[in-house]
Structure formats: structure tokens, C-alpha cells
Amino acid sequence: MQSQHPLGDYLQAPALVSHTYSSRQWGSLLAAKQYAPDLSAVQLAMIGTNPTLPDDKAIPSAADAVRQQLYALYCSEAALPLIDLGNIRACPSPTDTHYALAAVVEWLLQQGIVPIIIGETAQQSLGQLWGHAAWSKKIQAALLMSQFDLAALPYLQQWLQHPQLADLNLLAYQRAYSNPNDIDHLEKKMFDCCGLGELRPDLQEIEPYLRHQHLLAFDLAAVRHADAPATLHAPPAGLTAEETLSVVRYAGLSDHIISLGLYGYVPALDHRQQTAQLVAQMIWYFVEGFNSRKNDLPEQDEKYYWRYIVNFKDHDHEVVFLKSKKTNRWWMRVPSTQASKGLCIVPLLI
């Protein structure tokens, strides 16, 4: 792995927050890495985007506002496997920002580094998608958003039409804000759709939907207005702050998720920095989950799993259930025309 990154054309270094931090606060740990950006021991990298108006210096960066809150948090581990690489340079158009973000994401994935993206708009999740597409032939993604409406949000068409998108899980959508025809379209493509009402009785239900996905793009407008007021179109009913932190921790625990995007924070609406604090905590909990990963990958080696075989009397196939000896999580091996040997392993919650 290279010790220095060649991303200077795309990134501007983060402005150090003017504050004195203790040795265990994120600000102190991240500042030390900015002066000596050795990536050999880095596992995660935080990057932000800038508003697509380079001549208007008055528009604050969402990522910079989050940094003010994030740097004050304490690190629960002795070391922090994360570096702050700064922000994507302001670009003349949204599409240019997407391409710049994609280039940075692709390079980080090549180095085995997990990008954590703080984006200005949910549309910038296209850059996250394109970065994965440049790095891998097949993408399994999770979109978490309250509104799924292809007419109102045309960028979603680019998600669905991407030739390398093999699987998509739509999470926490609200039926009142989502076009039922579009939800039907997703389900006909065999994509999973899990609404907010399905998740709320038991939030653990979301964990299997994240376990085998490669990326999570989280639209902050899925969080209710009372807990995250500084987003456009924040609903009065949505995920609570506590539920939001649980979701991103599950994402951090997933051995397959290799990028996280947090989109739609508007600093100009954040009069008490409440939403910036929540986004900072989301990053904190994702990193905590990442540090607790167990390398629970039954598709690579089944010797760490108990096998339970169910035979059907009137059928010529069997279903195999796998239970992890490390985490007690469950999977099911089922026939599939897309997987090698006609089988795929599906995560379960039991």
C-alpha cells in the first residue's frame, strides 16, 4: 500500500478546527495524521464535498460543519484507524463533482480503505456508485431514504439503470412519500424494499439487509425533523436519532460494506448544530461497528459455522442453514442462477 495519496487534484486538505483537544479526542488524533499522512495503517478515510458554486465563499461546507462536532468526540480505542482527507474541490457542475468523488472512492477502494463520505446532496451518491463501478464488476448496494419517487428524484434512474448494479435494498422508505409503482418496479427486479413501518417494531430487522451489501448511501432526510432539522424535506415522522445510530453501527459491523455515504445535511438550516452533532455521532458509531467486525464470511470458509440441513420429501433439493460460531448470526444457502455452482448464501435474522 502506498504511504502517500495521489489525490491532490481532487481534494483540498481539511481546515484544522481551531481548538485544543486532549490526546484521546478525534481532533487530536486526526490532526496528527494530517501533518504526516501515512496511509499504511489507515482503514477508513473521511472525505467531504463542497457546494457546486465555487465563486460563492459564503456557502458553508457540510463536511466542515460536521468536523466541528466530530473532532470534539472521544475515541473509545487507543488508536483511530481513520484519516480525514479533506473535501472534494469545488467543481463547476454537479456532474463534475460526481466524477471527482468517484475517482477518490475508486482509489481508496483499490487501497483497501473504506471511504466515509459527507455529501451535500443525495444526488452525490452517484459518485459513490460510480466509484464502486470503476473498482468492481458487481455492486450490491443499500439506499436508505424516506422518499422513493423516480419522477421527483430523477437521479435514482441512473442508479437503477446502472449495468453493474446486481442488488439493491431500499430501506426505511415511507409509503406516503414513495410512488407505489416505483416500489413495484423494484420488487419486480427482485430488489428488497423494507419500509419504515416494517423496521420500527424491531430495528434488528435491518441488519440482514446490510450484511452482504457493498455500500450504504444514507439520505439524512430519512431522519425525522425533530432529530435532524437541517435537511431539505425532513419528514415529521422518520427514523429517530437513536435508530439512526443503530443503523450505521450495523453498517459498520457488516464485513461487506466498504463505503458509507451520508447525504443531504444543510448547515445553513442548522441553527443549534443539532444535525451536525448527529452526523458526527453517525460516523463515530460506524467506526465503532467497523472496529468490532468479526470477519464473518460463510461464503469463504464454512468450517466456522454449524450446518443444519433440511430435506424436502417431494423435492430433489435441500436447504442448508448456517449459524456462525463467532456471532450466532444465521445464513441460508439456496439455489440461484446467478451464483457460482447455482447456489447463493442469504443472510437471515432468527
Short description:
The protein is an alpha/beta fold and 350 residues long. It has 2 domains: 11-291, Ureohydrolase domain (Arginase, Chain A, 3-Layer(aba) Sandwich), CATH 3.40.800.10; 302-348, no CATH class. The chain is built from 10 helices and 13 strands.
Explain what you see:
- With 350 residues, this protein is α/β, with parallel strands linked by helices.
- The chain has two domains: 11-291, Arginase, Chain A (3-Layer(aba) Sandwich); 302-348, no CATH class.
- It is built from ten helices and 13 strands.
- The chain has helices at residues 26-35, 62-70, 94-110, 125-135, 155-160, 180-188, 196-199, 207-211, 241-253, 274-291; strands at residues 11-12, 44-48, 82-88, 114-119, 139-144, 165-173, 192-195, 215-219, 259-263, 305-311, 318-324, 330-335, 343-348.
- A nine-stranded mixed beta sheet has the order 1-3-2-4-9-8-5-6-7, with helices on both faces.
- A hairpin with a 7-residue loop joins strand 12 (330-335) and strand 13 (343-348).
- The mean pLDDT is 89.
